[in-house]
Write a structure and sequence with these properties.
The chain has 212 residues and is of the alpha/beta class. The protein has one domain (2-211): Uracil-DNA glycosylase-like domain (Uracil-DNA Glycosylase, subunit E, 3-Layer(aba) Sandwich), CATH 3.40.470. Helix content is 44%, strand content 15%. It has helices at residues 2-8, 13-16, 41-46, 53-65, 89-106, 116-123, 139-142, 172-186, 194-211; strands spanning 25-26, 32-36, 71-75, 110-114, 129-130, 147-151, 154-161. A seven-stranded mixed beta sheet has the order 1-3-2-4-7-6-5. The chain starts with a helix and ends with a helix.
């Protein structure tokens, strides 16, 4: 399993320096996989992906739009890079086979690539069969678009999306709308979820009480 591979990995300096790896988490039959670049300091401390500042917004939007069984969340690189400097290419390549193992284990209908670096490696990877080279494109050119990619013999839809970092606060509405659109197309609840149903029931009940 990917988690075991992640724990046992000694492929690059990040792991050899003793940094705790952060494996992906979620349903192994998920329809949608969200992939970030690498864990932050909070993720490193708790050993879970997207539980820091970026994750708070992302998880809230996912919870509002998807059933829990729809989602798997992970990172391209499993170890935290000190001072959030970002992983080097050799570190990405060393770790990439673990991401590929997660992808081919879960086999999601769609992969959401969070940020430009992840989008480049998943959509225009020289080792994959792809239709469009996005490496020289800007993030605003590709955000929310669907790209067909064959990864290790499996066909996937990959959708680039702005990373939910607080630094991209001005893009939050784009991210919010993008998650909603993906939910409506690929979520098992077709855009309705338990929280929305519960919220609608509360509004309806409040309306009845105000009429009494």
């Amino acid at each position: 399993m990917p988690v075991i591979e992640c724990k046992d990995c000694k492929e690059c300096m990040l792991r050899r320096d003793g940094i705790c790896p952060v494996p992906g988490e979620g349903d192994l039959d998920a329809n949608v996989m969200f992939v970030g670049r690498d864990p932050g300091e909070t993720e490193n401390r708790f050993g879970r992906p997207f539980v820091g500042a970026s994750g708070k917004f992302l998880r809230e939007e996912i919870e509002l739009n998807f059933a829990k069984k729809d989602i798997f969340i992970t990172n391209m690189v499993k170890c935290h890079t000190m001072n959030n400097m970002g992983p080097l290419e050799d570190q990405i390549l060393s770790c990439f086979k673990i991401l590929e193992s997660e992808i081919t284990s879960v086999l999601p209908n769609v992969i959401v690539a969070l940020g430009k670096t992840v989008s480049d490696y998943l959509i225009s990877n020289p080792n994959y069969i792809y239709n469009v080279d996005i490496r020289k494109k800007q993030m605003f050119d590709i955000n929310g678009k669907e790209f067909e990619v064959n990864i290790l013999g499996y066909d996937f839809i990959v959708i680039p999306m702005y990373h939910p970092s607080p630094r991209n606060f001005d893009k939050y509405e784009l991210i919010r709308n993008g998650i909603r659109e993906i939910s409506e197309t690929y979520g098992t609840n077709a855009g309705t979820n338990e929280k929305e149903i519960e919220r609608n029931e509360e509004i309806e009940e409040e309306g009845k009480n105000s009429m009494e």
